[in-house]
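Q: Protein A?
A:
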Amino acid sequence: MIELRGVSKYYQNEGNVTPGLRKASLKLSIGEFVTITGESGSGKSTLLNVISGLDKYDEGEYFVNGEETSYFSVSDMERFRKEYVGFVFQNYNIIDSYTVYENVIAALVIQNYDKKKRKNRALELIEAVGLTKQRNQKTSKLSGGQKQRVVIARALAKDSPIIVADEPTGNLDSDSGEMVMKLLKNISKDKLVIVVTHNYEQAEPYTTRRIHMADGEIIEDRVFQTVEPLKIEPTKNELMGPKGQFYFAALNVLRQPKKTITLLLAFIVLMVAVLFVYASSFTNLSLYFQHPLTDNIYDTRVIVKNEGNIPFTQQQLDAFLNYREVNDIVHYDMTQETYFNVSSSNSDMWFWASLLRPASSFTQEDMVEGNIPTEANHIILTKNVANNGISIGDTVYLSSVKRSNVPYAFEVTGFHNDNNNVIGVSSKFLNQTDTNTPVTNSSFINMVYENTYSVYVEPMAQTQIIEGEFVEYSDSVPLEEIHINESIKYKFLSYGITEEEFLLGTINLYFESDKVNEQVYNLKPKFIYDGKIDWEMRVNGSNIQNLFFKQTQATPNTSQITLVAKDAANASNLYKRLLNDDTLLVMYPSSYEDPYQSNPFNFLFIILMFVVFFFAFLVINIITKNIYKAKNKDIAIMRSIGASKGDVRKIYLFEQTLTVTLAFIFSLIIVRVIEVYWIKTSILTYLGTFNILLVYLLFLGLGLYIIFKYLNKLFGKTVISTLKGGSDND
């Protein structure tokens, strides 16, 4: 049985203390149908809330089977409600977004009722209250009487020894009220039923005991039918467990689509924005110009050199081409660093066309007009050339800057949007073959390599060399005979060039003629190719001298190649992949950032990322709080039917995890669609798995933190005050 001894409850409002219950004393037992009556504000609901454990008391003592409850912690009181009390409220307090079946089965899931018997038990109870036809209907669409019967079925599902009902017929018509009272009377045969009502006449035929209250005091306690005092046996409940918590989380996501979609959209928009901003730190913010080792820089080019200048075998070349990141191969990398002239028979125009790029480094979106070359005699030019009298279908001639007497005829198939004077040709021309097998006797390849011998040489005195020893000119001077001082190497390393890149490169010294023996004006390595090197000295202007070390090689070979990746992201991944091979020297020119060139984007990027994440926090915090304020009632209902704070917290943390995960998946899909149909750059590949997961974890942590903080604040209120919207007053 339960017993109250001098129990009092006080409410505070703006410094005023109001008694809600004064010195209440009574004993109640199984088998009683107790009706509590009184005017509004008399304390009857307060008495009911104290008995049910929904509200705490301030004075006196409350016993359950002789056990004091005044020392009960929050978790102890939650356990008491879970094991002893079922609730029927005037305002129904069912979860409107759930169906009849889901509201009833909720009580069974919370007490971890046998999963195999759970469904049948719920259907039996729904049939007992006459709602079988409405079992799959959302409770928000039920009539008042039907809602109240759902609540009774839920209370029966919990199988608690005590059923408390606060104005269970207050919002019902007389017929529905009569039906509810009969159901409660049937329950009272083996339970303690306590009903608060304004309409005593409706409850009178079923009442075994009437308690009348006024001004917070029990002024009448009339027993119409005595029962034998019995010990109240608690419901045998188990912990809900993760499966039950996840069940409610998934149910909330599915049954509250408007709230779910709103939160999903917020996360999706912010995730997509962060993914693009984050990816920009890997792409657009790098400074690609003025690379110290190579001139032909495009973001799909990866340069690979075989250690020891050993030509790649056909098997190695085929293996490279089979890499998922690789789109094409240029067998002779030297062709990518040679400058060419273009002239036209249709006009007097000619221009220094700068460098060749394989057509595979362009996409159709790069084209202003026309198509990408597919045949060996096709060529595309910069869009600026179209203003000089050249049109699609015209014939142009390609020749070396220094070997203009060896022209190659091409048909113009289009114009690209690169502002540099680069020209695009098919790899069939660059490799001089329709297969993947390199050739060594093509006039084009030989012309490119022979061109490296065409250097202007002028003897220099030893006094003109800042560091290192003077070397007499020879067209076959081995690399090791240049005798570069070690200090030069260290200056290169301090300049930002790696040890591996230094082995691929050589020196281009800039120094002022009037300070020849004093200082290095600048260090800018030029890329070195396979084999031997020679050097050239020439004068540019009146006060700057350049000393070049370049490759000379009698027979071209494939010890150094260009791999053309599918896009910039794949090129970056390919570069990282090849770095793991100790037999290769690898360079990705587009990743270079000049250490002496200040990059204002680095600082701006940090600020931008901070602003984006701060904005994301504010937006998600506002939206989440507004959504969860609408869920306050659902949270309180879950607690009232036996869910602990820990259970509720895990349910909504699971729910937030599901929402963030779904948003993340949709975000990746959206980014992928934008990649394919708009920007044509693989942002996700650029970021890589680690960075993508990092973004997900950051948003997940953000979402969980907001929910955790919100629930902790909500748990500071009693269940009854949450159900009433914050007011504890009767």
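Q: Protein B?
A:
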Amino acid sequence: MKVRRVLGPLALVLAVSAGMLLAADKTKTAKQTEQSPPSAAAPAAMDDSKRALHALNRLTFGPRPGDVQRVQAMGVDKWIELQLHPEKLDDGALQARLSSYRTLAMDSRELLQNFPPPFVLKAVEAGRMPMPSDSNQRAVYESQMAAYRARKENKAAKGNDGAANNDDAKPAPQDPNAAGSTMTDEQRAERREARRYARTQAEEITALPPDKRIAELLKLTPEQRTMLARGLPQEDRERLLAGMTPQQRETVLAMANPRIVVAGEMQSAKILRAAYSERQLEEVMTDFWFNHFNVYDKKGPDAYMIGQYERDAIRPHVLGKFEDLLLATARSPAMLFYLDNWQSVGPDSAFAKNGGGYGQQGQGQNRRFRRGGFGQQQPRMQRNDPNQQGAQQIKQRRSGLNENYAREVMELHTLGVDGGYTQQDVTELAKVLTGWTMRQPRLGGGYEFNARMHEPGSKIVLGHQFSGGGESEAEAALKMLAHQPATAKFVSRKLAMRFVADEPPAALVDRMAQTFLKKDGDIREVLRTMFHSPEFWSRDAYRAKVKTPFEFVVSSLRATGAEIQNPFVIAQALNKMGMPLYGMQPPTGYSMKADAWVNSAALLNRMNFALGLGTGRLPGVNMDSARALGAPARDPQATLAMLEQKLLDGDVSKQTHQTLQKQLADPKVAETAMGADVTPEASAAMNTNRNPGVIAGLILGSPEFQRR
């Protein structure tokens, strides 16, 4: 029996879920808006029995089996303090899982060299860059260049020379087995031929030891390697890769698509860290700050810079001083490129005066927004030509003052949209920031200060004067922004939105902002103020937040004790849910509010994921439900009660429980839930080979589990 037979009766569950989530969110928002000041009435505290679960739901990506009991035994306050000091927690098991991902330790230049994007391949083919001498790297280059030439020849043969000339701007095709756009009959025939060839070659090569496999692959022509790499079905590919070293695996995968190796390992690492790290608060805060200082992985070479950005600019500062975090992100090549500050030129700078008329303000370079309240800005992103490289092209792009970063650092990173700044402040800050640029951005170069691009003279931002300091001017300006009362309140409110409620109590935000200013922007101290506040522990805060798709997926994996064998499968599920990792185009980052994620289509995708996970039909993820959740009882209703306790700590509403009971009363649903393709009577009589996965999936899709 297939899980899809269960989905028909689940329409009622989904409708109830959506209604309950939205209604509850509006009710809680109304309560918090009408709440009396703390001096008049303190918020009602939650029961002690719920404190451990609440702490786990907020400070982690969700409890694992047994976590609630472990936190209760340690003491909730002691456990929180330990999470605030992640250096005291051993994360060796996670590091072992990440050890096969070599790209995580590479800088942008190394990534571009090992996993060449189209513009690097074009430069090699034109003789502007050398072909690598390493045999593994050379195989990747040769395979990709062969594919590039084949695409050009194919389009030229169809009389589309112009399109062929621009084909180098396109990435190599995705895995041919993945879902994609509609193909022509010719493309389908090519795929069938590629699969036939790949299977034939793979059968012979897979039988060899791993070292000999890679040697045989390198003996093939570039065209043959490309056909094999792209035409092999996933299960055959895994057999081919089995036993290979990390470098060998990356080489084979990069023959099909180098960029997908970089993006895939980065996304996989994020999923594994969230699911398995003992330093859960650190992971939650890394996710929070990346979203706050968002960059987009599909803008030019940013895909090759984001891993280093998260590793070196964000992760070391997530619990440190906000000033240090702000400066680190401002200097990061990923941010400099994403918000275009690398190409900003002072109108009266030496570069503008001597560079051929670059002194006019580049209004066309600046992003404009349609304002719609906090988190609703929708930018019209300017996409840079991914093939521009070299000093001449970079010089041409530096056509004037660019205000993009100056605007966003005020509106989204520090002061907030109502932070009291003016358009004149934005322009003046943009001048202060001129000269903060990059060395060879298309080749993975790092940050540098270019004094010739810097605007000379005095600038005034928020009433503060900056002049004559060169690079230090921007440092001083960013530090000034980091210590503004408006910044303290804006950052504190966003933290409270993440950890307390979509509309956090004003009194709590004010206390957090006071700590921010008093403790020099110490993020750990601001969090400690929040975690020890009555508002954090109030009954209104309990399950007040709707999980984002990322939070839902990871919390499901943690709750069921799932073993993730192929994290990229999880990343693909998140794409379907509308939250691709590192894939938010606007600088606002993903919304933390419920209304961005609660709709029928989103809930259906969540339910499908939950059922796939629970029933073992999610490729690349292994869940031993009996081991993680306990052996099922003799009937579905008793199993439901057991799993409600294990997955929801027994905290399930009467309406949800009754709705799930009705689903299990359907013989077909009950039959599937107990894991046997037999009659309900025979299934009830059986005492072995029973699978509570469908019931677990139903509970994971419930309104209660989708809240934290």
